[in-house]
Write a structure and sequence with these properties.
Elements: H1 3-29, E1 66-76, E2 79-87, E3 93-105, E4 111-121, E5 126-135, E6 142-154, E7 163-172, E8 180-188, E9 192-204, E10 210-221, E11 226-233, E12 243-249, E13 258-261
Antiparallel strand pairs: 1-2, 2-5, 3-4, 3-6, 7-8, 8-11, 9-10, 9-12, 9-13
């Protein structure tokens, strides 16, 4: 072997040894992969999620909540009550939380009064949202409802709470302490005790127009329990009441609203 070739082999050998030492040191001091290192490694499906890490959040593409009907009615003493019938068009997604704003306006679009709140809606559910006692010094010309910050959740195998309303009746008084009273019987037909159940009341005239709205809450309703509710209006309506709608709702997204369940393995939803 010539001296030049021998020198090349020696240099190459040293370079290989040096590279192996550098590589070994890099591997020794290289940080171990984690679920928050900002790169896809281990068996992750996406950056820092999936595989041995936490499940990746599924992107939810849901249709907007629809407003089927909305309006306002006189609520007595310069107050107005507002209502909206909304629908979730999504069969697979429900909203655990959304914000809403009822805004009363005059004919020029100026705001006369406003009331905000938070709501929830189950998959493919139609329900009412109602707010009462919005103060305004003049009669509104229109009402605007704005729904925002909708938090969608995917559901599978969920169980809708069974809340029935029976024996509904409305009486119109010409004197006494009230001018109208709605009475009904709530029956918790589910297998859960609820801390709070809300009842929405909508009264309509012969043409189907809304005459009055209101809400009531019942606390600590046990499974299979029946509870009567009463709602009164201390003022006269513009038209006779011919139809009485009532719906009951329990916030099943709020774990604190479930006091107790009575069937093993039963729960509201399975994620």
């Amino acid at each position: 072997m010539s001296s030049g070739l021998k020198r090349f082999v020696i240099i190459l050998t040293y370079l290989l040894i040096f590279s192996l030492v550098i590589f070994a040191g890099y591997k020794f001091f290289q940080p171990k992969p984690t679920c928050n290192d900002g790169i896809i490694n281990q068996n992750e499906e996406q950056i820092d999620c999936g595989g041995i890490c936490a499940p990746c959040e599924k992107e939810i593409v849901a249709d907007n909540i629809e407003v089927i009907e909305s309006g306002f009615v006189y609520g007595g003493a310069n107050n107005f009550d507002v209502y909206a019938k909304i629908k979730n068009p999504n069969h697979q997604y429900g909203s655990s939380s959304f914000d809403y704003d009822f805004i009363l306006k005059d004919s020029s679009g100026n705001m006369l009064g406003q009331k905000s709140g938070k709501g929830f809606i189950l998959p493919y559910e139609t329900k009412y949202i109602i707010e009462t006692n919005i103060s305004s010094g003049q009669n509104p010309d229109k009402m605007e409802l704005v729904i925002s910050n909708v938090q969608w959740d995917e559901f599978s195998g969920y169980e809708e709470p069974a809340l029935g309303i029976y024996n509904k009746r409305f009486s119109d008084s010409s004197g006494g302490v009230f001018s109208g009273e709605a009475v009904g019987l709530l029956r918790n037909e589910s297998y859960f005790d609820f801390d709070l159940i809300k009842i929405n009341i909508i009264l309509r005239d012969e043409q189907g127009s809304v005459v009055a709205v209101s809400t009531s809450t019942l606390n600590t309703i046990k499974s299979r329990e029946e509870r009567e509710f009463h709602i009164t209006w201390p003022y006269r309506f513009d038209a006779p009441v011919r139809n009485f709608e009532a719906e009951a709702e329990a916030d099943v997204y709020d774990a604190d609203n479930f006091i107790q369940g009575y069937l093993t393995g039963r729960r509201f939803q399975e994620n």
